[in-house]
Design a protein that fits this description.
Elements (H helix, E strand, L loop, with lengths): L1 E3 L6 E8 L2 E7 L23 H10 L11 E3 L1 H7 L9 H13 L1 H8 L11 H23 L9 H5 L13 E4 L3 E4 L2 E2 H7 L11 H10 L5 H13 L5 H8 L7 H12 L4 H8 L7 H27 L13 H9 L4 H13 L8 H11 L4 H12 L7 H16 L5 H13 L17 H13 L4 H20 L10 H10 L8 H22 L12 H11 L1
Bound molecules: amidocarboxymethyldethia coenzyme *A.
Keywords: Transferase
Protein name: Citrate synthase
Pfam family, one: Citrate_synt
């Protein structure tokens, strides 16, 4: 039941299908070498207690498709050598109980994902997707056939007139948002991603290329795979000259998001999807040029974004790319920031802003526009225009400007009472407190928390960080007192600005562009899956107030 690949050490154990969810289970011998098979140095977390439970879950259901042709089998006795605790194999009854418990606990299914690691030989992301897509298409077909009429909730009038809050209405594979726990990228929380995704150096922040791999495949890549993907993105990064000329046509005073979105529209000229569609291609092929466009888009955005930054703030002095650097580090370098801590910040920043399930304005916009078979450039440019709104991505700009105006008014040594007064003044003037509240989250955003941890580690004495910390104490009780705010806790935008400012990137109006570069990773990944799964044109029904009145009167 245990498989190893030639000299490699990674063992794919089995796959299982529970409740319509397909889980690949990879067993990793972390502690002891297994007769001729190297132990897993790449895996950095201790073997969790539930490993054998998961193993047995697979053991009971070993579908033939679970194994690729290359692995060779290793005996169960060898498996015993991996861990001393073979207690699970002694009692079939206990194991059956365990299996059924696992099947019914989504948290356990999530823990299975922790075990997904791949062979160092699987370096081709496109080929991996090609393998996965038919299986996922089947899953969706089966889901529709078996459960197509299952109700997912009731739609109330409140939902219709309150921005569709709480209405489950979208399929989004790459991430899922829990109101209390925050975002999970393909089942992994942010702290789990920080532990599991490869970093530039040991103990460092995750490389966004690793997250891109995870979002696309649902599997945690190893460093070699991530390095390969970095190189692939670099090879796609050349931006055609006309894109810069299109940006130059705008006044330099135009908002950075306007310049950035215009640059993305100019990139669209090279869309592979558009070309292929014009020539004609079967629907089953749609994902391939979408893959090309999405990867090219992700690869080219740092050059476009840094061009906008250098044009507006650095007299147009452009810094060429450094091909020795990873995606985020090279972006930071092109912006003009080479401090190793800033490179780490950029890796974290690009990772955590990438995806936040499908209902937020930017993600949903891209999904909607893409559903008309508009190519990834058109879809992403539309998303950027949504991201540029102050209730969404522009909030990061608003937060720093708000804090700067607070400091201007009261100085850096601000008392708690002065802070409270400032927050109330903001609210009484009819404005929102930027960086607080959320459409889905009901607790502190884990994206805020990990940025706070970064600050505590790297810039604990920064006066602006101290202010952000004080606001964390002062704002939530005030918003709670208002009585109408559903989530008084900080979101991602409450923290990002002060970190960037600390390292010299202090132009607040530019911040949303950074958010946009990162968002391309989530949106691009999902667009590929949208086309791979053949998702149709999005077209919800709308009604008039008159219709609602008539319908509700009849219903009550
Ligand atoms: N300050 C003041 N009032 C707030 C508030 C805040 N931070 N958050 C919510 N409210 C108000 C709303 O404006 C609304 O008031 P109304 O009934 O008079 O119109 C009321 O509280 C109820 O709103 P809600 O249901 O709690 O929030 P929502 O889902 O309608 O809106 C959001 C969510 C993010 C737009 C809102 O919390 C907000 O405006 N926050 C500040 C802007 C911000 O930080 N945006 C970034 C969000 C994260 C992101 O997308 N990047």
């Amino acid at each position: 039941m245990l498989y190893a690949r030639g000299k490699e050490y990674i063992s794919k154990f089995a796959s299982c299908t529970e409740s319509g969810l397909q889980c690949s289970v990879w067993f990793l011998p972390t502690t002891r070498p297994l007769g001729g098979v190297k132990s897993l140095s790449a895996v950095r977390w201790p073997l969790p207690k539930y490993d054998l439970k998961v193993l047995f879950l697979g053991f009971l259901h070993p579908p033939a498709t679970a194994f690729s042709s290359r692995p060779f089998p290793v005996s169960i006795l060898s498996l015993q050598a991996i861990s001393g605790s073979m207690v699970f194999f002694r009692s079939v009854a206990a194991l059956s109980k365990l299996r059924s418990r696992l099947a019914h606990q989504s948290t356990s299914l999530r823990s299975i994902r922790w075990l997904q690691v791949q062979s160092t030989s699987d370096l081709d992301l496109h080929a991996q997707l090609k393998d996965m897509i038919p299986e996922q298409q089947e899953c969706l077909k089966k889901l529709k056939a078996e459960h197509g009429k299952v109700q997912l909730g009731n739609i109330t009038l409140d939902m219709v007139i309150s921005g569709m809050r709480g209405m489950t209405g979208l399929l989004w594979e790459t991430s899922l948002l829990d109101p209390d726990e925050g975002i999970r990228f393909r089942g992994l929380s942010i702290p789990e991603c920080q532990k599991l995704l490869p970093a530039a150096s040991s103990g460092g922040e995750p490389l966004p290329e690793g997250l891109l791999w995870l979002l696309l495949t649902g599997k945690v890549p190893n460093k070699e795979q991530v390095d390969g993907l970095s190189a692939e993105l670099q090879s796609r990064a050349k931006v055609p000259e006309h894109v810069f000329r299109a940006i130059d046509a705008l006044p330099v005073t135009a908002h950075p998001m306007t310049q950035f979105a215009s640059g993305v529209m100019a990139l669209q000229v090279e869309s592979e999807f558009q070309k292929a569609y014009e020539k004609g291609m079967p629907k089953t092929m749609f994902w391939e040029p979408t893959y090309e466009d999405s990867m090219n888009l992700i690869a080219r955005l740092p050059t476009v974004a840094s061009y906008v930054y250098r044009r507006i703030y650095k007299d147009g002095q452009i810094i060429p790319a450094d091909s020795s650097l990873d995606y985020a580090a090279n972006f930071s370098h092109m912006l003009g920031f080479d401090d190793p801590k800033m490179l780490e910040l950029m890796r974290l920043y690009v990772t955590i802003h990438s995806d936040h399930e499908g209902g937020n304005v930017s993600a949903h916009t891209a999904h909607l526009v893409g559903s008309a078979l508009s190519d990834p450039y058109l879809s992403f440019a539309a998303a950027l225009n949504g991201l540029a709104g102050p209730l969404h991505g522009l909030a990061n700009q608003e937060v720093l400007l708000w804090i700067e105006s607070l400091v201007k008014e009261c100085g850096e040594d601000i008392t708690t009472d002065q802070l409270k007064d400032y927050v109330w003044k903001t609210l009484k003037s009819g404005k929102v407190v930027p960086g607080y509240g959320h459409g889905v989250l009901r607790k502190t955003d884990p994206r805020y928390t990990c940025q706070r941890e970064f600050a505590l580690k790297h810039l604990p004495d920064d006066p602006f960080f101290k202010l952000v910390s004080k606001l964390y104490e002062v704002v939530p009780p005030i918003l709670t007192d208002l009585g109408k705010v559903k989530n008084p806790w900080p979101n991602v935008d409450a923290h990002s600005g002060v970190l960037l400012k600390h390292f010299g990137l202090s132009e607040a109006r530019y911040f949303t562009v950074l958010f946009g570069v990162s968002r391309s990773i989530g949106i691009g990944s999902q667009l590929i899956w949208d086309r791979a799964l053949g998702l149709p044109l999005e077209r919800p029904k709308s009604v008039t107030m008159d219709w609602l009145r008539t319908y509700c009167t009849k219903a009550t």
